[in-house]
Design brief:
The complex is a heterodimer of chains A (about 575) and B (about 350). Chain A has about 575 residues and is mainly α. Chain A has three domains: about 180 residues, Arc Repressor Mutant, subunit A (Orthogonal Bundle), CATH 1.10.10; about 140 residues, Regulator of G-protein Signalling 4, domain 2, CATH 1.10.167; about 110 residues, no CATH class. Chain B has a single domain, classed as YVTN repeat-like/Quinoprotein amine dehydrogenase (Methylamine Dehydrogenase, Chain H, 7 Propeller). Chain B is mainly beta and about 350 residues long. Chain B has a four-stranded antiparallel sheet with strand order 1-28-27-26, with no helix packed on it. Chains A and B meet through helix 1, helix 2, helix 4, helix 10 and helix 11 of A and helix 1 and strand 17 of B. Chain B: This is Guanine nucleotide-binding protein subunit beta-2-like.
């Protein structure tokens, strides 16, 4: 019930901002500890030249205290925290208007709790009185900055109805101050000044006290109705009975996931040939366009992780399709894609599209009938009565698991996949070991062991380079000519064009150029290229005259030492 | 809860509302008991055997300057180099982050554009904020982008987050009206709404699994709820944070979710074990988390804080690896690029930064 009390309180004062209060209270607890005379930051009167500065402490004392208290190892972090506290106005530099903490003997003074940001919501009148007061004092010491004079002028207009009151207040406070001891006066003056520097910062300075307009978020909007509560009771009743997996088991799986993907995580293994953000070279992206003729080795290996991973990659889908065609189980992937399209498509015409899919894949004697068990068929037929984008979910799931258990496993063992791996682009390779001839970077050579690397144990290091090096025999495998399967090949599969395969056999660099072609179009129309389909004719036309300078550049970046040899 | 006022009108329902509330609380406690039963080991213990990660050498690589207000949200295009960002002054900017060029700038008819998202095709962006609406802008170089804008859906309070669920045709939104909603883009129609949160929804994320139809949302009721998109039903709920949850993200495998809260902690909840499995906190971190994301493998957890920093955590060992300094005000949004090569952050200091 505490929460409802809180929400009532929040309704009353819209300014309440619980998360903000939480941070303030954390900081203030820390500041109180700092001010503990025994265990806190040493505060005393500090001598600066001939004057004595009362109640001050030094920057490095504070940093040291923070490191000790918060168990901080890196001094940079302690300085950062100190700076944040300073910006919130919990302490301030004695001789400076810039609220930054320096890790040296610069002097700082604690703000009085009265002026802590959590305690005080200042208004314009307060600010006007403060500024007025300073105009009444010694000009050299208390003179107003330009922005403050402007502010004062603005406030004078704004508060003209009570300007007399402002002036009176200011005078009175100045008179009161005269009776104080000198050291008290210095301290109080500095605290007040610091307070306003935080609350009304000079132009160009960020204030850390700004709020977002949705500060008064509410934890409970309205009283729950009986119906809602009944629903919740039902929900929890069911929820309690839900089966749960043992913790150790799920933790091992979380760890396994990290291991499996360590090689594919640029933050762990780097990016080959180079990370574009670091090297300013976009080769990596060009090599990994959505649809490429020759995927990189890394990419092909990633497909072995799971069918999901394969299907998440457009090139992976294409290659899988090519394989399934050979296997005569092409309808499965087509069905899966059709349902995927249905689920992600527009709302309009859903019923028609459901019907189309049904007739193509599921109806008795359909042209591309997929194999479903009787139970799934039943479920689907039931759902067909009110077609929706989710009508085929069960069927899709069934087909997916079918592909996963069957076709996908065979795909990974197939010659088709082996060829893909063999012909894959080896971005991480040190080409020094190969004598490939002078200028063209060929699609390089065999790295036959497909999934060895994944099982090899040393996951967390950058094993790509080492392993591919040790495993490399220095002989180039003969070119099979069967390696390339792009979408264009799909169209040509039934009636293979002699010319096409011929040119591919004779010039191993063609397919590389085709990659470049995608690259170029990406550069020109970055937007359209995402889902660009290869068009076979234009590619063949352009492939011959596309001798870009890219291979050369790539080579240098991949193996800069090569030039030195 | 907070039903004291209602008691004046009718007597009996209050009684039963109270008893129902009590029953909910009782069931919640029993649920917690069930969850604790299988608690046999801690993640950091299991992960002890792993080798420590190599030292991270992440540096700021690009600074995107152009917003004249606080940057509130950003999203990567799947082309790995474009970014859409939105800000407090009502501007939305499309960047080629690689060259740092601005390709489009759109002025929204509202301030505090708190959410923006890139469509998977890269041909469209969606955004919204204090206007309570989600608006899409098809991107083209031929004509003014705002001429083609379309409002897709309206909430009854501000829109805090949005995303395209693997499709240009749908948008998923979360709102201060404590609901989430799935909209059809073409018809500008509500497909499904999701009720269950007891406070503002601040963040949502789609399950990364290809076939998955679930997403997770979290917000000011300190709950993270997992939803079935098809039925609109909540299937799992997670609690544990001591203040508002500002951000939620799926672990890349889709088996767990990470949350970041104003209580200065991040937490990891596993969906299969149905419970919290890790807390990422440190004595020296006192400010809230606004945004978080995982690296491709899931090993690194990046989190943007109100103290202007990004903390990088080892997800498995639950230790902080390093701090990224650079922003001069709150870090509001943070996203790992689609291919995992970079990290983008946006801040109240008006800039976005790319780290790699």
């Amino acid at each position: 019930m505490t929460r409802s009390v809180k929400s009532n309180a929040m309704d009353q004062s819209k300014q309440e901002d619980v998360p903000r209060e939480l941070v303030f209270s954390k900081m203030e607890r820390l500041i109180r500890e700092m001010q503990n005379p025994e265990t806190g930051v040493p505060v005393r009167s500090q001598k600066l030249f001939l004057t004595s500065i009362p109640c001050a402490f030094m920057g490095y004392d504070l940093v040291e205290w923070l490191m000790d208290r918060l168990d901080i190892e890196d001094i940079a972090e302690a300085i950062h925290i100190a700076n944040i506290l300073c910006q919130h106005g919990y302490f301030f530099p004695v001789n400076d208007t810039k609220f930054a903490l320096k890790d040296d003997s610069t002097l700082y003074r604690f703000q009085t709790p009265y002026f802590w940001p959590s305690n005080h919501q200042p208004d314009n009148t307060d600010y006007a009185i403060f500024l007025m007061k300073r105009t009444l004092k010694n000009k050299q010491k208390h003179g107003l900055e330009d922005y403050e004079q402007e502010a004062l002028a603005r406030l004078k207009k704004l508060l003209c109805h009570k300007w007399e009151f402002v002036c009176m207040q200011a005078e009175e406070q100045v008179n009161l101050a005269k009776e104080r001891k000198k050291t008290d006066k210095i301290v109080l003056d500095s605290q007040e000044k610091a307070y306003w520097l935080v609350q009304r910062p000079p132009p160009g300075i960020f204030s850390c006290l700004e709020r977002s307009p949705i500060a008064n978020k509410q934890t409970t909007k309205k009283a729950k109705t009986k119906e809602e509560l009944k629903k919740r009771v039902e929900f929890f009743k069911q929820y309690i009975c839900k089966p749960r997996t043992r913790l150790r088991q799920v933790l091992e799986s979380l760890i396994l996931r990290c291991k499996e993907y360590a090689d594919f995580d640029p933050f762990i293994s780097g990016a080959q040939p180079s990370n574009p953000w670091i090297s300013d070279d976009t080769t990596l992206w060009h090599l990994n366009n959505d649809l490429v003729e020759t995927p990189t080795e890394k990419r092909v290996k990633r497909w072995t992780i799971s069918l999901e991973e394969l299907l998440a990659d457009p090139t992976g889908v294409v290659e899988f399709e090519v394989y399934l065609r050979k296997e005569y189980s092409y309808e499965n992937i087509r069905f899966w894609k059709a349902v995927q399209g249905l689920k992600r498509g527009s709302q309009t015409g859903i019923a028609d599209r459901v019907k189309d899919i049904y007739e193509e894949f599921l109806a008795a004697g359909a042209p591309c009938e997929v194999n479903l068990d009787s139970k799934t068929v039943e479920v689907t037929q039931e759902l067909m009565r009110s077609p929706s984008r989710y009508t085929f979910d069960a069927a899709q799931e069934h087909v997916f698991s079918l592909m996963k258990k069957d076709s996908y496993a065979r795909f990974l063992r197939s010659d088709h996949y082996k060829n893909l791996i063999r012909n894959a682009q080896q971005t991480a390779q040190k080409k020094k070991f190969f004598n490939f001839g002078a200028s063209t970077r060929k699609k390089s050579s065999p790295a036959a062991g497909t999934s060895k690397r994944r099982n090899s144990g040393s996951h967390m290091t950058n094993s790509t380079v080492d392993l591919s090096l040790t495993r490399q025999p220095s002989v180039e495998r003969p070119f099979t000519g069967k390696h390339s399967h792009s979408t264009s090949d799909l169209q040509d599969l039934e009636t293979p064009s002699d010319k096409l395969s011929c040119s591919r056999l004779s010039s191993p660099s063609v397919s590389r150029d085709r990659v470049n072609d995608t690259v170029r179009s990406t550069l020109q129309v970055p937007r359209g290229s995402q889902r660009m389909e290869h068009s076979s004719s234009s590619l063949d036309e352009t492939s011959s005259n596309l001798s870009l300078a890219v291979p050369r550049r790539t080579r240098n970046l991949v193996a800069p030492w090569e030039l030195e040899d | 809860m907070a039903s004291d006022g209602g008691g004046l009108k009718i007597d009996n329902p209050v009684e039963s509302i109270e008893s129902l509330s009590k029953e909910v609380e009782k069931l919640k406690a029993r649920l917690e008991e069930e969850r604790q039963k299988l608690n046999d080991v801690a993640l950091s213990t299991v992960a002890e055997r792993l080798d420590p990660l190599p030292t991270l050498n992440i540096k700021p690589r690009r600074v995107l300057k152009g917003h004249q207000g606080k940057v509130l949200c950003s999203d990567w295009s799947l082309d790995k180099r474009h970014i859409v960002s939105s800000s407090q002054d009502g501007k939305m900017i499309i960047w080629d982050a690689f060259t740092t060029n601005k390709e489009h700038a759109v002025t929204m008819p509202t301030t505090w554009v708190m959410a923006c998202a890139y469509a998977p095709s890269g041909n469209m962006v969606a955004c919204g904020g204090l206007d309570n609406k989600v608006t899409v802008y098809p991107l083209s170089f031929e004509e003014d982008v705002s001429s083609k804008k379309r409002a897709i859906g309206t909430h009854t309070s501000y829109m805090s987050c949005c995303l395209f669920p693997n499709s240009d045709q749908q948008i998923l939104t979360g709102s201060g009206d404590s609901t989430c909603a799935l909209w059809d883009v073409e018809c500008a129609q509500l497909l499904q709404s999701f009720h269950g949160h007891g406070g503002d929804v601040m963040s949502l994320d789609l399950s990364p699994s290809e076939t998955g139809n679930t997403f997770v949302s979290a917000g000011c009721d300190r709950q993270a709820l997992v939803w079935d998109m098809r039925t609109g039903q909540c299937v799992q709920s997670f609690e544990g944070h001591e203040s508002d949850i500002n951000t939620v993200k799926f672990y890349p495998s889709g088996d767990a979710i990470a949350t970041g809260s104003d209580d200065a902690t991040c937490r990891l909840f596993d969906l299969r074990a149905d419970r919290e499995v890790a807390v990422y906190s440190k004595q020296s971190i006192i400010f809230g988390v606004n945004s978080l994301d995982f690296s491709i493998s899931g090993r690194f957890l990046f989190a943007g804080y109100n103290d202007y920093t990004v903390n990088v955590w080892d997800t498995l060992k639950c230790v902080r690896l390093t701090i990224l300094y650079g922003h001069e005000n709150r870090v509001t949004c943070l996203k790992v690029s689609p291919d995992g090569t970079a990290l983008s952050t946006g801040s109240w200091d008006f800039t976005l930064r790319i780290w790699a």
